[in-house]
Write a structure and sequence with these properties.
9 helices, 2 domains, seven-stranded mixed β-sheet, about 35% strand, binds S-adenosylmethionine, alpha/beta, GMP Synthetase, Chain A, domain 3
Length: about 270
């Protein structure tokens, strides 16, 4: 039964229409984003969710947007154990992380697999903004050597653990550092750079492009409105990149989507 149907009779109809259809699941944790109108009913909503889903041990509510450099929202515990550490399984890979302290978007699993599937054994790959490793681990599992750059120290620790958990630690170098300085930090160029760029850091595209060998590939993620895409494409081409593909991979707010540009350096 869907959450809305379970709550009919408990939550008034005028509030029920504000209930989101979906929620975000990371491992055994469900993350809701409840509208302020649902404040009085949040415990009932979370308890219904907990009762409906046997695999969920904690229900959280996002009380802010993603914020700060770590790109993590503030969360309140609505029901369950309150433990924010979980184990998420994605296409056979296992990720341990603390959802309250490290960014993780479980809706990007297929996109990560799409990119990993293009990687050939022996490639040198750079992943700035690596988080707890959901791009890094599957790419290393393809036989690539991966340099993972991440500014959140806790994310680096989870990433190192996830590399061991998935038995790819020998092919991953985790660097706790600022991706904005990657050209100075890393004295090499790469066959492929995968940049899951946080909101507002688009200026990194030029540096990311410099890190790619001629003939290599840059997968660059950015948050944009559809009518901004053509100008962006021209800007990347002016940097010496050939856009092979540009596709939407998720909505982030009304009118704004996450886009990925797959580009080859000429
Ligand atoms: C959009 S998340 C992507 C995380 C991960 N790749 C994933 O898909 O789950 C951005 C990540 O970049 C990190 N970050 C933000 N600013 C950074 C910077 N200047 N240098 C390195 N990492 C940074 C954040 O801590 C966060 O883990």
């Amino acid at each position: 039964m869907r959450l809305k149907e379970m709550l009919r009779g408990t939550v008034p109809e005028e509030s029920l229409v504000k209930l989101p259809d979906g929620y975000h699941v990371v491992g055994e944790i469900a993350v809701l984003s409840l509208a302020p109108e649902l404040e009085d009913y949040k415990t009932e909503i979370a308890t219904a969710l907990l009762n409906q889903c046997n695999h969920i041990h904690t229900v959280l509510n996002k009380t802010s947007r993603l914020e700060g450099e770590r790109r993590v929202a503030r969360m309140e515990v609505l029901a369950g154990t309150g433990n924010t550490i979980t184990t998420h399984k994605e296409f056979g890979f296992i990720y341990h992380l603390d959802v309250a302290r490290v960014f993780f978007n479980s809706r990007l699993g297929s996109e990560r697999m799409r990119v990993a599937a293009q990687v050939r054994a022996g490639e040198d790959v750079l992943v700035p903004f690596a988080g707890s490793g959901p791009f890094v681990v599957p790419i290393a599992a393809r036989g690539a050597r991966v340099v993972a750059l991440e500014k959140n120290r806790e994310a680096c620790l989870w990433l190192a653990r996830n590399a061991r958990q998935n038995r790819v630690e020998e092919r991953i170098e985790v660097i706790h550092g600022d991706a904005l300085h990657m050209a100075k930090l890393l004295k090499m160029d790469f066959d492929r750079v995968v940049s899951p760029t946080p909101y507002g850091l688009d200026q990194i595209a030029e540096t990311a492009s410099q890190m790619v060998k001629p003939g290599g590939v840059l997968h660059f993620y950015t948050f944009k409105k559809r009518d901004q895409i053509e100008a962006l494409r021209r800007g990347y081409e002016d940097m010496g990149l050939v856009v092979m593909q540009c596709r939407r991979c998720g909505n982030v707010s009304p009118g704004v989507s996450r886009w990925v540009f797959d580009m080859v350096k000429s």
